[in-house]
């Protein structure tokens, strides 16, 4: 059986010390040099072990201060279900309220953005065709817990009251309700979740370690005519959020 890589052995040792209350939540860990000397490894091995535990939410790094045992943090439940689309209110805010948190979001919309190749394929349009792109940061008690970037074909909503997802009289109403305003019935959505590591930009926005594990969801809404009307990339940090899918059953 292959020998366990040294950094995984050190990670296990750090977990053991935390489990046995050698270090309590909020405690600052000894220096990497000290841990390395105690465990017979170099500082780079300790660094890799700590980065792994930071990505898993066991430790947290504080710039200019050191590495600390992370305080217990309640994972936020994010529910994915077409049944949660509603005429008023936000499913995200409802999820946050259920765990005693205040849910909100910040957004930025750019109109007439040329569609990149992948987005064009997902929307069934030509590469370079204009889209309305909106970037979101979803917050729980002011802390970012989810990112999303949505794309809508510009020619679908141009000249209407719903051209800006977060502007005008229907701001924040959601894709299904906004499309209904202009006579488009959204019949279903397709989501493709997959795990990957956070990019540097995502890690910075979410307040997590670079390369920490996230769930990347590619979601596309379709009209009852089969046309894609919106596609989005949703990024959720695995250590802080759990994703639950509700499957409505029609009888």
Automatic annotation (TrEMBL):
Species annotation? Streptomyces malaysiensis
- PROSITE patterns found in the cross-reference section: HTH_GNTR
Return the CDD domains for the record: WHTH_GntR
Q: Which domain of life is it from?
A: Bacteria
Determine if Ribonucleoprotein is one of this entry's keywords: no
Pfam families, alphabetically?
GntR, UTRA
Q: What is this protein called?
A: HTH gntR-type domain-containing protein
**PANTHER family, sorted:** GNTR-FAMILY TRANSCRIPTIONAL REGULATOR, MANNOSYL-D-GLYCERATE TRANSPORT/METABOLISM SYSTEM REPRESSOR MNGR-RELATED
């Amino acid at each position: 059986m292959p020998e366990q890589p040294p950094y995984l052995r050190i990670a296990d040792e750090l977990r053991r010390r935390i489990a046995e209350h050698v270090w309590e939540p909020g405690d600052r860990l000894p220096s990497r040099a000290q841990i390395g000397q105690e465990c017979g490894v170099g500082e780079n091995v300790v660094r890799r072990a700590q980065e792994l535990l930071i990505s898993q939410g066991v430790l947290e790094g504080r710039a200019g201060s050191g590495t600390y045992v992370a305080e217990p943090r309640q994972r936020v439940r994010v529910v994915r279900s077409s049944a949660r689309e509603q005429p008023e209110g936000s499913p995200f805010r409802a999820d946050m309220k259920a765990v005693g948190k205040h849910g909100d979001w910040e957004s930025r919309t750019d109109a007439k953005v040329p569609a990149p190749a992948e987005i064009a394929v997902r929307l069934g349009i030509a590469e370079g065709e204009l889209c309305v792109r909106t970037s979101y940061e979803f917050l729980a008690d002011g802390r970012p817990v989810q990112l999303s970037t949505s794309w809508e074909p510009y020619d679908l909503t141009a000249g209407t009251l719903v051209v800006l997802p977060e502007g005008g009289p229907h701001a924040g109403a959601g894709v299904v309700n906004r499309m209904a305003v202009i006579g488009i019935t959204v019949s279903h959505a397709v989501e493709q979740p997959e795990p990957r590591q956070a990019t540097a930009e995502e890690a910075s926005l979410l307040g997590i370690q670079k390369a920490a594990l996230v769930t990347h969801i590619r979601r596309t809404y379709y009209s009852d005519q089969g046309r894609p009307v919106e596609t989005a990339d949703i990024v959720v940090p695995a250590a802080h959020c759990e994703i639950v899918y509700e499957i409505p059953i029609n009888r």
